[in-house]
Amino acid sequence: MNITMSIEKPTTETKPVDPERQAKEERLQRARSEVESMRDREGKLLDNGIKETVVHCMALGLPTEQSCEGHLEQDKGFPTPWVSFKALGRPTWWYEGQKEIWEEVAREYGMLLEDVQSFANEKAYYEAQKREGDFMRVHKTEEDGVEEVSLIMTPEYQEWQKKNEALKNRLQNLMKEFNLSGNIKGTHKELVLTEDGDTLTLHPGAVDYQRHFDAKIHEEGSARPDNPEDYKALGVRLHEYQDEMKDFNSFLEACYFSRGFDISALEE
C-alpha cells in the first residue's frame, strides 16, 4: 500500500497591517517616550503608578500639567492619585494691567521682564507677586458677604478660556462614562473633577483629596488622622483609590484604540 503524505510548506504571508492601529501605536509610543523624561516642579520623575495614565491622556489629546500616584505620608502629597490638566497655550497675561505691574518691577530692579518672570531674582519675583495682590485688593468688591475681584480679562485669555472649557467638557464626559461603566458592573466608581482656578484635576477619593487640599493649600492643620486605626483605614482607602485609577487607565486605553476615536482630528 502506497501512502502519500502532503507536507504543508510554511507560509511567509503576514496579516495585513491596520494603518489606523499602527498610527495609534506610534503616537502612543511618542507619548510614552515624552513621559519617561518628564519631571515635576521639584525635578523628580513621574511616579510609576500614574505614568501610564498620563501617557494615555496625552495620546488622547488631553494636555496634562501635574500628576501623582498618591501617598500615605503627608509630606509626599495627596492620599489619592490624581492628574491635573490645563489647555495648551495659556497666555502669560490674563488681565489688563498685569503686564504693566511686572514691567514696572523689572525697570526698578534693572532687569529684563523675562528674567523677573523666570525667578532670576527672588526678591523681584515676589515683589511683582505682591503688587499683583495689591492690585487685586483694590479691585475687590463685596456683596452679601461674597467677595469678588473685578478684573478686565485680556482678549487672548478669553479665547484661551474657551479651549479650557472644551477640555473640561471632554474630561467630564470621560469621567461620567467611566463611573457609569463601573456602576453597571457592580463596582462603585467615584472619579471626580475638581477645579482650582484654571486647573482641572481628575481623582478618586473626593473627601480625602479635599481634606489634604484644605490642609496643604489653605494651611488648615494636618490632613492625616492622629488615630492609628484611622490612619490604617486611610491606607486601605489609598490602595482602593489607586486600583480605581488603574481601572481608569484601562478605560482610557480602550477609548484610545476604539474605532470611534480619530487621532487625525487632534491638535498637535
Which tags fit this structure?
268 residues, alpha+beta, four-stranded antiparallel β-sheet, two-stranded antiparallel sheet, 10% strand, globular
The geometry reads as globular
Q: Describe the strand arrangement of the main beta sheet, using strand numbers.
A: 1-2-6-5
How many helices does DSSP assign? 8
Q: What does the largest sheet look like? A: 4 strands, antiparallel
Give a written overview of the molecule:
- The protein starts with 18 loop residues before the first helix and ends in an 11-residue tail after the last helix.
- A 4-stranded antiparallel β-sheet has the order 1-2-6-5, covered by helices on one side.
- The chain contains 8 helices and 6 strands, in the order ααββαααββαββαα.
- Helix 3 runs antiparallel to helix 5.
- The radius of gyration is 25 Å and the shape is globular.
- 18% of the residues are buried.
- 50% of the residues lie in helices and 10% in strands.
- The mean pLDDT is 85.
- The longest helix has 30 residues, at 155-184.
- The protein has helices spanning 19-36, 48-59, 98-108, 113-117, 122-138, 155-184, 206-217, 228-257; strands at residues 64-68, 82-85, 140-143, 146-149, 192-196, 199-203.
- It is of the alpha+beta class and 268 residues long.
- The chain has 2 domains: 19-88 and 158-265, no CATH class; 98-149, no CATH class.
